[in-house]
Specification:
Order of helices and strands: EHEEEEEEEEHHEEHEEHEE
Largest sheet: 6 strands, mixed
CATH superfamily: CNF1/YfiH-like putative cysteine hydrolases
Distance between the termini: 21 Å
Mean pLDDT: 98
Radius of gyration: 17 Å
Pfam families: Cu-oxidase_4
Keywords: Hydrolase, Metal-binding, Transferase, Zinc
Shape: globular
Protein name: Purine nucleoside phosphorylase
Oligomer: single chain
Number of strands: 15
Family: Belongs to the purine nucleoside phosphorylase YfiH/LACC1 family.
Number of helices: 5
Strand content: 25-35%
CATH architecture: 4-Layer Sandwich
GO molecular function: copper ion binding; hydrolase activity; S-methyl-5-thioadenosine phosphorylase activity
Length: 241
């Protein structure tokens, strides 16, 4: 577990967060070893053991989601797996959880340390407004919200078509700066971190941290772009018991 990441952000002391890596589990290749996704053809027995180890490491109850690249945000409930791409909680010990393997995980908290939230943002969810919906779930003013952006596909690896660029620019023309022409004609290299920051800034949220780890080039993380048959790691945020 020493390989796992602790977000570097000025969150209140009762707000805890963690990002798992591939290390510390029981899954075999190509899901080695701490795959937390139960939808990637890994052994369910292995996934459940990996999830148990995660829960035990922090004495938390992760609330897992069935992520669909949408904008639905629900109250985190460890007792059910909701179809959603964001969750929030004000209950200590329950962890809002985002599973990714190139998509952007975003962790939220309010400055009072009374509510936390997590979002899963692929480009479709990001363009549709999943970060904004997750912010709304905090029921806080923009100036009272902190956001940490977890490991995701980096700008040097995220090649997209013109339709992706247009989807963002139609809503927020300033997002043009997050795209540069690719060496491949007609394609663009997209900066998902910059896109997230621009959209959050549009809502008045400027206390945004993280955004420095590329899942494609960093072997600590699962990456669908690097290897389509792979596992999922998790970014979690919770209130201390």
């Amino acid at each position: 577990m020493s390989d796992w990441l602790t977000p570097d952000w000025p969150a209140p002391s009762q707000v805890k967060a963690c990002v798992t890596t591939r290390a510390g589990g029981v899954s075999v290749a190509p899901f080695d070893s701490l795959n937390l996704g139960d939808h990637v053809e890994d052994s369910l027995e292995s996934v459940l053991e990996n999830r148990r180890r995660l829960s035990e490491a922090f004495d938390i109850q992760p609330a897992w989601l069935r992520q669909v690249h949408g904008t639905t945000v629900v109250e985190a409930d460890p007792g059910r797996i909701a179809e959603a791409d964001g969750s929030w909680t004000s209950t200590p010990g329950i962890a809002c959880t985002s599973m990714t393997a190139d998509c952007l995980p975003a962790l939220f908290c309010n400055r009072a340390g009374s509510r936390v939230a997590a979002a899963h943002a692929g480009w479709r969810g990001l363009a549709a407004g999943v970060l904004e919906a997750t912010f709304e779930s905090l029921e806080s003013k923009p100036a009272d919200v902190l956001v940490w952006l977890g490991p995701a596909i980096g700008p040097q690896a995220f090649e997209v078509g013109p339709e992706v660029r247009e989807a963002f620019m139609l809503q927020l023309p300033a997002t043009a700066q997050a795209f540069i022409p690719s060496p491949n004609p007609g394609k663009f290299m997209a900066d998902i971190y910059q896109l997230a920051r621009l959209r959050l800034a549009e809502r008045g949220i400027t206390a945004v941290y993280g955004g420095g780890d590329c899942t494609v080039t960093d072997p600590r993380f699962f990456s669908y772009r690097r290897s389509p048959r792979t596992g999922r790691f998790a970014s979690l945020v919770w209130l201390e018991r």
